[in-house]
Specification:
Barwin-like endoglucanases, Dimethylsulfoxide Reductase, domain 2, Rossmann fold, alpha/beta, globular, single chain, 679 residues, six-stranded mixed β-barrel
Length: 679
Amino acid sequence: MPQRYAASLHCRVGTLMAEKIYTSCTLDCPDGCGIVAEVENGRVTRLEGHREHEFTRGYLCAKTYRFPNRLYSEERILHPMKREGGRLDGAWQRISWDEALDLAAARIREGIDADGPLSIMHYQRTGSWGATKKLNHRFWNLMGGVTTNSGSLCSGAARAGQTLDFGTRAGHDPMDMLNSRLVLLWGRNPMATNLHMVPLLKEVRSRGGRVILIDPVRSESATICDEHVQTRVASDAEFAMALAKVILEEGLEDRGFLKDHTHGFAEYRALLDSRTLAELSEACDIGEDDIRRLAREYATSKPASILLGWGLNKYKHSAEVFRCVDALAALTGQIGIAGGGVSHGFNSQRLFDKLVEAPGRATHHRSIPEPTLGRGLLEANEPPVRMMFITGGNPINQSPNSMLVAQAFRALDFTVLVDSFMTDTADYAHLFLPTTTFLEEEDVLVSWGHNILGGVNPVIEPVGESRSDLWIFQRLAERLGIGAEMAGTPREWLARILTPMTHNGVTLEEVMEGPVRCPIAPMIPFADKVFPTASGRYEFITRLDHRPRRDEDFPLTFVTNFSKRWLLSQMTEAEHPKSPQVRVDPGSAALAGVRDGQRARLRSAVGVLEVEVKVDGRIGPGIVLMPVGTWIKRGGGANVLTEDVVSNFGLMAAYGETRVRLEPLPEAVTNEAREPAEA
């Protein structure tokens, strides 16, 4: 029987004894680790992995091991704050919770009475994947509905593309990869962003299988692969089409699967026939001989799986990229079989009772796409947005065209930020409400990277005066006349949210005691060959409109990646590098006149940053690579440069469409001030 940590320990916080308490990490990461927290005298002293967690296997990533440093950081804000005089240039001053909540409730009521509920925007992102965060939406729906954010900064194009093909985005269970003879690791870097996938990839190899990395950057994950295929940046659709052409030319397709389970094959073949292999080879910068060899290996190494990453999801045509890659699995009959498939992530919403959000109570509806947040706020009328209420996000830092977003925020009458740190967005807020971390909350984690449900038990009492999002919205509800409809303990709400799990034989009590496999998640999606598409079959892509963006003034493609050291913008000022760094290939550095270690201006059509340049032969030609998340106030902020371009499908931020140029700087030149971009 798996080891459980006694329920009595879950509520015994603040004692004089050392305890071990089970919980789960709710940060925006596919791994969703099971954690055992060691607590002594009411203080977290150590985090370790839960040994019985099927996917995370008893260890954590470096970010999670270091999380107690964030929990107890001197930079953490532990009491409500408001701006003196209500001005953005006013100094922050400490206030009580009663004053903070009274102020927020008054501004909500005033906004609704004066301009209607759509004059308020609730912006929520995925700073926490805890299930109770869904209740934030309930509050605003009970208020009649407000302006919300739509679209995606993360995986919208992937979801859209795979939904067009399969009817839904449904990846194979990670453990099924052990059945694969070949894994194509396509645009994904698990060594930095998905650490618990690494042992599975190593085990595939130890069993005689092969792992091939397909990426324009020779990332850390190349060290655990048998081969690295370095495609030209943003040419993945063309590379997939080239492989498909060879598979068909050499008769390696699965004709039975094509006949019985697919729709649109003739049109898809016509799409392939519209390009020669030589043209596709030139587009992706992979030789025809290598294309033929790789196509044969994929088609004949059945079962073979494809594990897609977020590097593919940042372009206008990203949904089509996913569809072109999906088509390889359909061509070869690698769908619905053990060890096969094309996996990117999971739809976690399938496990929740969405009625808890009270969608029927919202009579007003309007949304602003996240990829164009700055423009959307500035252009909104009838009514204009006058108040923002932000939970789980840092939109100034994470949105494309950051300085345009900042300009839009400056025009708002009142902004409330629920957070733990003075982020870039905090610089544009009038009221700061300090929230708790997952170590101080009771919640449930449904991961988007694996199928293990995680209990989130409160490990310690909230530090300082920090309070959970649910507590904050419940107190606001009391002040606004909807208190009874938001009332309830976290445990009571979780029981309602997870009703679909209860109906499938998993109780909330089991989930809170230890990791539990989701009872409705298949190891192998589409094993019955039934697809929730219009045709009931897999549907091929039949049209691709991709013209690589070129600009003589900005010759380099700006690529942002995730750091091994921090998660998105969740870092402290103390954790920042001394200066923002970018990596560039030797050829591009030489053309720009920049040497290794030199400071340079990195300029796009919408912004400029001063950076330290690292010349790195592992970077593909024509790329400038920069980790996302460093703060604008510390001289960083990759999205100062990114343009607010939207994907063709899925309302995804097409960050990778940004083009930049490097300009060498004399060593004596210091950071120049950055003004907001023109609207």
